[in-house]
User: Fold these one by one.
Assistant:
Number 1:
Amino acid sequence: MSIVADPHDIKKDKILESAYNRFLHYGYSKTTMNEIAGDVSMSKALLYYYFPDKSQLYIAVMRKLSTDYLKKLQAGVFSNLEEAFIFQINTQHDFIVTNYNFFDFFRLNEQNLPDDIWQIIGEIHQAEIELLKAAIIKEADAGIIRPVENPDAIADLLLDALHGVRVRSASQKKVFFPGKDQLEEIHEKRLLLVNIFVRGLMN
Amino acid sequence: MSIVADPHDIKKDKILESAYNRFLHYGYSKTTMNEIAGDVSMSKALLYYYFPDKSQLYIAVMRKLSTDYLKKLQAGVFSNLEEAFIFQINTQHDFIVTNYNFFDFFRLNEQNLPDDIWQIIGEIHQAEIELLKAAIIKEADAGIIRPVENPDAIADLLLDALHGVRVRSASQKKVFFPGKDQLEEIHEKRLLLVNIFVRGLMN
């Protein structure tokens, strides 16, 4: 690996940064490839050379965001299981609040997300499992919680349960991606669930 | 109220029964109004007089099933909180396993269920909350679990969490209505979640 950055990578990074800012401030649908080409002083043809269409560009930004998110997750320090769970919930909550408009792509394509996005979601999910699993094993070894046969399954169960926590609308319909005004309420409910869940694992 | 049944009601009941059997054995999409009219020896015109279209007929059957389900729920007898939660999960599991093919309508219309169906789901949800709430209050009064400020919210939280328990497919996509082969695994996971959750509420 050379320490001199590849000029292609520098250009790509500039495109990703401009795209992120536009997606975040104007949303996916209101952002055009023309505007991004303008931001980075590049011909549209060259932009399309790097990213064949807007959705590919979106996926690349999403991948970068996900890498940052995973780094934050992995840098977490906590002294017990409940803190580990709370850290995971808070990190996710902050990530979604900060990038809320970026996710309008998810709302627009709720029923038909590209496979690449599902792959990124899968990677994040796996990293979350690893984090929680390590915390569960540590706590079980220390005798603070009951011995756990399958820490993976317990971590997965909690993540599923947290995922189920939604704010019900008047019509009972639940949407995959919550409204911005619902995030706080969901966050509170998840903290309560974690509190009960951790107590339930105790000796 | 007369004890002599209204002939209209008798006819309606016969239609609902035939429709239920056909929806259950052949699914919603493969059932025609013609076949149902044939089953009950009725002209198609008369059938349409009672039910203006197939989806209205489906909703009426769904309403009847839901009434039966609620009766089963309300007849439940249990001696503690975990039993109450398990009873609720088992009753729902049996209901879905028994009527699995009937719900192909849900799969077909996953993203666009009629409001009437959402209303029925809402009624069932409310009845489930009431059942669990009563069990929580009883157990808290008896000092078996910690005092609970808002038993409604705790019941709702558990139902949300249970709802989140899904079987992940290889692609990470989660479907609203699970495959028949996934029901047992989901059921097992829900029982585990209830076990942890109830322990977490204990003193």
Number 2:
Amino acid sequence: MTEQPEHPSTATPFWRADPSALLRVGDGFSLRDVDPGSAPGTHADKAAGLAELARSAQELRELQEKLFAQSRLGAMDRLLVVLQAMDAAGKGGVVNHVFAQLEPYGLALAAFKAPSEAERAHDFLWRIEPRVPGPGLIGLFDRSHYEDVLIQRVRGFAPPEEIARRYGAINDFERRIADAGVRIVKIMLHVSPEEQATRLISRLDDPDKHWKYNPGDLDERLLWPEYMEAFQIAIERTRAAHAPWFVVPANRKWYARVAVQRIVISELQRIDPQWPDADFDPAVERARVEASLGLHWPG
Amino acid sequence: MTEQPEHPSTATPFWRADPSALLRVGDGFSLRDVDPGSAPGTHADKAAGLAELARSAQELRELQEKLFAQSRLGAMDRLLVVLQAMDAAGKGGVVNHVFAQLEPYGLALAAFKAPSEAERAHDFLWRIEPRVPGPGLIGLFDRSHYEDVLIQRVRGFAPPEEIARRYGAINDFERRIADAGVRIVKIMLHVSPEEQATRLISRLDDPDKHWKYNPGDLDERLLWPEYMEAFQIAIERTRAAHAPWFVVPANRKWYARVAVQRIVISELQRIDPQWPDADFDPAVERARVEASLGLHWPG
């Protein structure tokens, strides 16, 4: 036996087991069995979590920069992260504390709201397709095409046979973009209804946060069991080796953030991007630059 | 006399004078008189500059969050920052060290490359218009429609009468979007040719940076005087009260970054965004959330 963990992404005392393995949805998954207050893979506390989040920023950035760099010379790899959750589960915090660590050039963020009239006049994937990230980018969907099988199912905005059709359409779509070089990671941030209530009340108690509160959010909250059922079905029907689901316990914000950070790092490590070779002769170019220093331009 | 500076943006010992005033292009401007190695407004050194950059991040973020928040309730204000420079002048560093401080939700980054065949088949503003930021956003153009009067003039890609037409077209365009609520700030990062050479050589000496080097960049470098003339003319003809130009000395990277950060903060302070009032009754909503805690959902 060795002290060295098998996977480089867990080579830190913070993680006792790789969260990207622990949180990945497998056979026989039941959302009901996931404790939103748990912290799989670590025994650390909030202070250690925040330190880990800061510590791993450099690792994340270097992988992203390599991914971006290799695309400039033709590599097609890119990553798409889909974030889904009930309101106040912490999507915004994950964006602002994990994805904000990336260089702005490498991040393509798409926040999907309720569809517009023009969007509703098309198939549900019409507005999604143009937002698929290009080579070298990390795409982030804050809500996504999964809204079309979550709120649309729970609210009955589409009939059951249309919802059923959509699971297949999503699978076809994700298979197709995976074939084009898009690595897909789908993440549900999972809070308890009690924790959601605490967060909604804290928004209501702070006038500077009122803009984040929408009375309609509470109407969705009252349909909690229906939403959990819709998540369970959507996850079951759309998980795939090329497009896995991860359910991240999110009652502790620090845990959700370090877990998502580690999942993204692990997926980038699987892509294993490399600094591209130069398509020019560095010695020749160096001589050209040096020669140009002899030029005398008007001051 | 008082110790309090007049403008809140200079309420720091780092700045002895407001760089957003010092670097703003005024009457009789001559690019030739700007020393790329200077640091107007401060006597501080690099260490103090990096500390200032970190210290002011919170101020920048809070202004941005307010700008974003007020747009959710209908305010139309947004900011567009246009970045132009010779290669290796530090645009990337400004993006990664200043604009990376913003929440990803609030930043709309558009990097304009050489126009595609489809883009060349349209007027030069055709590809620019869709990238104008929406309400609440900070738009950042890394290169822009100014390429169409810089490289296109220097290289003769368009005839002189077409270049002449474009200054007027740019002024009309910027006036129109300003009228729609877009505050426009145009920034030239100004390096010396000697500093550029040093940076190009340092890229060539580091294989991990080779992807950032393009042999074509050196061809542009050899036209330095022509580029400076093109910048001088473009700045003269397109500066306006609603769309000012700033020329930022950029031989010292830390200076360029804190100066751009302070210019952006100053412009956001002029917009003076406010937390929006709630369009619901917080007490009523709080009672609704609390009532929902009594519900018993299946575990």
Number 3:
Amino acid sequence: MKTLKVALLGCGNVGAQVARILLTDAEVLADRAGATLELTGIAVRNIGAKRDVEVPADLFTTDAEALIDESDIVIELLGGMEPASSLIRRALSRGASVITGNKALLAAQGGELNALAFENNAQLRYEAAVAGAIPILRPIMDSLSGDKITKVMGIVNGTTNFILDAMDSTGAQFDDVLKEAQDLGYAEADPTADVGGHDAASKAAILASLAFHTDFAFEDVHCEGITKITAADVAAAKDAGMVIKLLAIAERSEAGIGVRVHPTLLRRTHPLAAVHGAFNAVFVEAENAGELMFYGAGAGGAPTASAVMGDTVAVARRMASGGPLPAISAQQPVKVMDFCDITTSYWIGLEVNDEPGVLASIAQIFASNGVSIETLRQDSNPESNAGTAELLLVTHRSTEKALAATLAAVADLAAIKEVTSVLRVEGN
Amino acid sequence: MKTLKVALLGCGNVGAQVARILLTDAEVLADRAGATLELTGIAVRNIGAKRDVEVPADLFTTDAEALIDESDIVIELLGGMEPASSLIRRALSRGASVITGNKALLAAQGGELNALAFENNAQLRYEAAVAGAIPILRPIMDSLSGDKITKVMGIVNGTTNFILDAMDSTGAQFDDVLKEAQDLGYAEADPTADVGGHDAASKAAILASLAFHTDFAFEDVHCEGITKITAADVAAAKDAGMVIKLLAIAERSEAGIGVRVHPTLLRRTHPLAAVHGAFNAVFVEAENAGELMFYGAGAGGAPTASAVMGDTVAVARRMASGGPLPAISAQQPVKVMDFCDITTSYWIGLEVNDEPGVLASIAQIFASNGVSIETLRQDSNPESNAGTAELLLVTHRSTEKALAATLAAVADLAAIKEVTSVLRVEGN
Ligand SMILES: NC(=O)c1ccc[n+]([C@@H]2O[C@H](COP(=O)([O-])OP(=O)(O)OC[C@H]3O[C@@H](n4cnc5c(N)ncnc54)[C@H](OP(=O)(O)O)[C@@H]3O)[C@@H](O)[C@H]2O)c1
Ligand SMILES: NC(=O)c1ccc[n+]([C@@H]2O[C@H](COP(=O)([O-])OP(=O)(O)OC[C@H]3O[C@@H](n4cnc5c(N)ncnc54)[C@H](OP(=O)(O)O)[C@@H]3O)[C@@H](O)[C@H]2O)c1
């Protein structure tokens, strides 16, 4: 049986679990790959650091380049842009195949790295980069290769789902739940990348690129986080039989492909609404397959390592059998839509003076901007706000542009006291 | 670009949709496969029959064998054992690759057919055979190839899920819901294969074979259907925060691998509990990945055709790139467990005389058989049954053997009027 030399870059949360699996499950892996996977070294910053798993000390090195230059397969689990990018390029340029879970790097340089792999007849795989353990990239690329994907909607960030789910079940405010999530280890000390939606936006770019056979980067993704979601928003949604989730959405329409991350209202009967805690799930719509959903752990050392190892076995299998790479589907030239052209439904909360004619003026503004109203609910306010009423409108799908114009005109009405919330609605 | 000749056997629910996709999406398919897929003919029984899709009349033939002998890829969508089995063998023996959705055939002859494909350096794929459109076989084989699956639990039959879901939401009896399902086209005129659990058992054998790298046949699967589930069972489950689903379960333990299909109680918070109507879903537990779920349409012409086409593109891609087959993982010799050795939890309803000492005798019997009780609830019966009480017990996991002995001894107690229900509980 052929032996393939595997270099591991990084021995942190994920890297340590990959090392463990390579060392303890060697026999099973060899059987499945048709080749022996020999872990030849682990590049880290601090050789002496205490590790989560037992690894022979002589495997550690700080010379990642030398390690790469002796390897057939390189598993990059350092994170960050540099040195990860240079090291991956070094490996691919040598014709070594690379497995990585580095979503930030892929969202920035995925197109270039894929091209470099292709030029060098090397394989580049990154199932772990989106939704951790959940097999989602391969089903999109392979299982759905005979179908046409029309939409992908994913809960792809565990931290924000944990926070929104806790707000939903306890009624607490964002800040309090964030603090609890930090105490429990579900949110980082600096939570910006998660709660600002940037981590989800990286994953949205990767998902959209594969689903639509093209190349989206982080900048192509419209991104809004969850920091402005209030307990009142969550309660109002609950009241209407809905739940707020941070979704990464990529959708094809005649006008092009729009990719966005924002808090989104979903009916509680939608399959994504049942995704609780830090779990992830990706919902896919395809012309023939209809609606599919893939659910599981979106992060964590061992789950993410499972995805890394699935890629590693696949890469090794192909190396062992000596076959050429499969034909890569031509990159389709696509129109990346401007955010203002994207269509969705909107949930709009207004505080208005409770006087005759207000409703008519509001309805008139919506109509003249071509935004049609699906449902409208009016509640008189409790005594503290006597003389005012709360309006809750849900619109049919319309463009962001039309919505913005509508809201601007509505805000100008003398009878409007405040636009209390504007949220997008999907799966309606 | 290489041209591959594709023979389609069958033009029914699924075959017609496959023909449509091959004819209308030829360009996209060629791009993704790296080869042109030329539909060279469609074998049917009745050439003149009216079809669901527009197909050039000269493609139809009744001579399946001649068609196969001129083809690179054969898509079998006839159903049934013969002539499907002989035709698939004919194709594989010639070195043509085969895609099929024929679960009954695979559950009976999967091991042989896979071996025949391997001997002839041909590919055999059957994603459509389990859970229709849902990519499940490939994720199990490929994405999880670096992990060890410990358990698979699937809702893999849409008819029975539709019936159980309707019983749950309406409180109606099995017979009434079955009739409604037949009227709506969700159940066949002869529903035996579905409600008896046999269709699910075929799929359980296929899932277990792939998840555990071995070869299970239909006969290895313990199979119970849903015909004995009453409205009272469903209501009692609901009352306890649970729901009854027909599950195909394959589980690895130290004693071997057990494969079974039976009505199963699940907590309503379990991801499988949220699978409504005729939808399917497969829940997978793996050592590193943890819990995963795959959800979607389990049947229907277009969804099933999507899975068939995914396989077809994969097969064509490999043919176009000229590579050898990937190494097939060695079949692991495994111990198929006797059903009596399988462990699960049980939900047991008893009607007893409401007299002192009954509870103690029952508890004593459970204890002496080594079946430990997790929860127990006693309700006095309404006046119609004065003097009797209802007991509801849920046990910890124990073997079928121990449970059978326990029930036999309990039934012998003079104070027991009736064992009103025995159901298995999972995901507890
Ligand atoms: N954690 C998850 O659940 C998860 C999920 C999906 C994807 N990912 C992705 O997986 C990657 C790794 O994540 P992680 O959580 O395992 O990270 P981590 O715990 O921070 O580990 C990073 C590892 O890389 C090493 N390293 C960092 N910079 C280095 C340098 N310049 N030279 C040599 N070694 C260096 C560190 O060495 P020392 O130990 O010596 O400091 C450490 O072992 C990231 O791209 C992340 O986005 C993670
Ligand atoms: N339907 C689903 O949703 C679904 C889902 C998953 C898997 N599957 C599997 O897919 C397969 C096809 O199912 P289906 O629902 O499409 O079946 P179907 O509607 O009954 O169609 C069967 C087709 O095969 C042809 N045929 C049958 N026996 C033949 C023979 N001896 N010689 C030539 N042609 C013959 C029939 O020809 P005529 O039209 O001339 O009678 C018909 O076109 C089955 O194995 C089924 O289990 C189906």
Number 4:
Amino acid sequence: MSDAGRDSVPPAPTLRHADPDNTMRILLATDNHIGYLERDPIRGQDSINTFKEILQLAVKHDVDFILLAGDLFHENRPSRDCLYQVTGLLRQYTMGDKPIQVELLSDPNEGKAASYDFPAINYEDPNLNVAIPVFSIHGNHDDPQGAGPEGALCALDVLSASGLINYMGKFDLPLSEADAQTAGIAIRPVLLRKGTTHLGLYGVGNVKDQRMHFELRSNRVRMYMPRNRDEWFNILLLHQNRVRHGAQESVPEGMFDDSVDLVVWGHEHDCRIVPEPVAGKPYYITQPGSSIATSLADGESIEKHVALLQIQDKEFEMKPIPLRTVRPFVLEEVVLSEAAEEEDFELNDQIAVSKFLKSRVNALIDQANKLWDDRNARAVEDGDEPLPPMLPLVRLKVDTTGVSEMSNPIRFGQEFQGRIANPRDVLVFHRAKRTTRSSKVTIDQPELSIDDPELSITEKLSKVRMQTLVKEYLAAQELQLLGEGGMSDAIQMFVEKDDSHAIQTHVTTALKALMKGVQANGEVDEGDLDNVLVKVREQHETEYAERSRTGKTAKGKGKGKARDEDSDNASVDSMMMEVDGGGSDVDFDNDEDLDVPPPTKKTAPKRATTTKAPAKKAPVKGRGKKAVESEEEEVIDLESIEDEDEDEPAPKSTKRTNRAAVLR
Amino acid sequence: MSDAGRDSVPPAPTLRHADPDNTMRILLATDNHIGYLERDPIRGQDSINTFKEILQLAVKHDVDFILLAGDLFHENRPSRDCLYQVTGLLRQYTMGDKPIQVELLSDPNEGKAASYDFPAINYEDPNLNVAIPVFSIHGNHDDPQGAGPEGALCALDVLSASGLINYMGKFDLPLSEADAQTAGIAIRPVLLRKGTTHLGLYGVGNVKDQRMHFELRSNRVRMYMPRNRDEWFNILLLHQNRVRHGAQESVPEGMFDDSVDLVVWGHEHDCRIVPEPVAGKPYYITQPGSSIATSLADGESIEKHVALLQIQDKEFEMKPIPLRTVRPFVLEEVVLSEAAEEEDFELNDQIAVSKFLKSRVNALIDQANKLWDDRNARAVEDGDEPLPPMLPLVRLKVDTTGVSEMSNPIRFGQEFQGRIANPRDVLVFHRAKRTTRSSKVTIDQPELSIDDPELSITEKLSKVRMQTLVKEYLAAQELQLLGEGGMSDAIQMFVEKDDSHAIQTHVTTALKALMKGVQANGEVDEGDLDNVLVKVREQHETEYAERSRTGKTAKGKGKGKARDEDSDNASVDSMMMEVDGGGSDVDFDNDEDLDVPPPTKKTAPKRATTTKAPAKKAPVKGRGKKAVESEEEEVIDLESIEDEDEDEPAPKSTKRTNRAAVLR
């Protein structure tokens, strides 16, 4: 990205003196994964309980708004229970008479639902009495899917339609083939002011890491910023892999624009909420981490926090707040062969081994319960109510290298029924070599991988059966006419995103393509039809292969198509570039050719509504909202710091492939 | 039901002179079936378009509120698109500054969500600026399902949590075994006042017809009414079969209490919205009918209407309003053998037959288009905008009795691509005898039956495969230990209600029961275990059979359990009595023994909140809402007109069966 903006190093993240009238108070949290294990008799309500705690903290700390960085929901299609509970909690804790003190300076209709009149920002709606606005981007779990009349939608869209959440960073709806090729990523900020403090919120919902990486490298990420951008405190929210998982499967920390002051990094579950400076960059990164452990991996055992983020002018301060409702979780790794020596027992004496493992688990339970007691004691000191104890999560990783046979871990766990929350999977066995792989899986999205060690037998079973079902279903169709190319992707969509129409959509589109092909071959009699079909189908296949390399794809079906096979990564995106694998390390010298304006469609509504905005606001009729004069409320016009000549029409690039890009 | 209340015949349904200040204006509609065929490229948006029209009519006719009688949603778990669109439309058209002129006299917290503080009636929430409240009961399509932390939930609960709908008539959450036995149906009204007019809304969400029938006959339907009930205009909303489908598979028109003035009958799709008197009863029945055709049956071809219902004191008037966005639909039945004689062609000359059928379909298309033009013309006369024409729905039922072979109806339909909205199923063939059955099916819920002639091949396929999937899944479990009894029900829940947990719930509960049984048999060694299990399992089976006859069942799993096999009827209920079939025509002489108070739990919250209610209302802070003095706002206390001694404790009836009831 460009080096426009100042190169001065930002001040250390503390506020010298916080002046209430000029200090924004923000509750920062992310990856709440509501609905995780919701059917579990013990842990079923963990995610919702902690989300409730977070909302209560927002009220207690009298924040101006709540900021979330994705994966509010664990399932792409949250259960009715989840949606109901989240709706109820948001209505209960974020609506009310508390006056809103942050003035919205950007267009309240930027990103609003096309079909409806209400604004995108809930507290700009005179019919809603909002006390604490919630701003969020989507994550890889709750990203937009489908191609209905309103385009791809996610669970946040529903909450946004009911006025309970302000959904940001949904930049990525391919509206047409042309769009899909040229869109890049355009980030239009939510601009807020409190007293002298000006805050720009730049949200980028999750996209596939490879694509994000590519867009950043090829200057196609356009942040639209006020001209006096350096007088603003700029927060960039994103939800991507930060830990490296092979070529381009993560986003480098140093790749963001120098105008950014703070990057809020969602998706990674380890709590690294205390801001960390980035070498050679003027911004800090805060990684709040998830508010619930969705895998029993090391990172998840770090104590979970949210934070009170205070911003005054260009200074900020982050006060971590430990979460009290999170289940205590401790894990340990033992290497049996070593243990056997130290404690002197026979590796193949199962009774002895099991006796040893039980002693370890008991030790871990005590340790976990102590964690809980200490945390509780601290809170009580600070004047909070004590909480009743929770069963802890305990995980013992056993390196069984050299051991011929191990006893059944599930039976082993039964012994701890009623003392731990996860008796079924307290033990995991592995051999030395497997360690790296399995830990990689858990860092990523374990819930979505069938090989996932964390999955219960039944979960795996049902997933497998789902795929069987889909394959059967497809078998029943005229499959010999269809390319297999997009099929496995579609199947994955069906299984992972619970998108029951992914298949149908793919089949329909593929068939349409075939029909067109057949027609192109003019009149054919029944006899020749088969040959024609085969011919067309091959052609179709080649095109698919091409497309999934260039990322070029059509509306809707693209969601199912242009993703790779890595079932660990649930992030789906319709325009990604396959830059890894098969000698595809592309030469990007002529990036500029790729740097094209966003669809003018995007800018049009903004202009249109600029004048309308105040009108929308007029009816607020002194309900104690927004302590600001309305003449200050005209919408700020933005400039792209990436691309000056953005009003040029898009080049008519009909079919661009990596090869083409290199050759030109 | 009792004959308490007056026996005078009500006035003819016209208002002599409507005094605006004392006249309630209500938009009456039902069975919007939003989401029906939502994936259909032509008809996909029909249901939502018409729902939008209905909301616009409510605004245009300046109504005090909207009244719906169930099946707002077609799918029990509406797609994200549906939920999003309905949420958006409700927010857009029902929120706003129009002052609410109907005062709520009943407890605003009656039926509120237990976990949250906001009231059950959205316009009592000071944080929402409601212009047109929407009141609705659930239907058989969108009825409560599941047994999550909040109990059974339906789509209306989600809309209610977001404050967009006032969900009434959810009386039926079995809280315990005892409950399930003794609950009956308790109807607590929403009581409204406008000037001198007092209106009681008595909502009864859909329950299985057999159960409703039984509850009515055995005096277990308790309407809680103000003491001066005769000064109120009382509306009963229900969603049941009105057309008879065999013993107790419908609800007789004459079975309701004489205090009722108007019955609003949902579920039946034929428009019979003009109020009809009931022989020997003082009340009228209005059957608005669906706002979309969900089957191509005769009843659905009647022009669709909603109505403006005006009520002043004890008088009312119903003004039907034709719906303009409904697709014109005509159907015709031809008997080929007769046609062959009249038009003199050979029954087995396929070309001639097909030529004849095409001429008939063409005639129907003209007829349908004329319908549309006339409707449009009428509207334009009344000063409305003309609408662009829609492709019509056309159905030709062909009696093929005596014809050996017919050509493929789908290929036949292709000829009409672009001229009708349903080319794929314009023709249905049947033989004389099948007529009655198939028409029964279509009157009922065709979408849920796999035999349903209206289902597309793919739809059937997927349903069948779903069931296969479930069976496979179960096969993988320790099935030999489980009773088959509840299984098929659970499977049906899975398929029809998209309740992916029905199976799991059933299995878990059944297994729990088994464990208990085994423990009851004290210490057993591995050897005997099998015998014990067999024994227990048989016992378990008998109990299940018993339960499904008596309707006694446990929380949650009941939803899956106590329903019969009739896949035509989607109405699910946990407490129904199987009074039909197998010599079970029970003697109800001692009904009184069955007439027991509702769980005291139900009355408790009411008391508790009576005093709280005004407090909740205080913060309304003159936003022009509710033009009424708050001292009038104390909650009216109700009496059950069914049951005077309702404060008696519930009789400790441990396990009541029909037999027991008869013997005593």
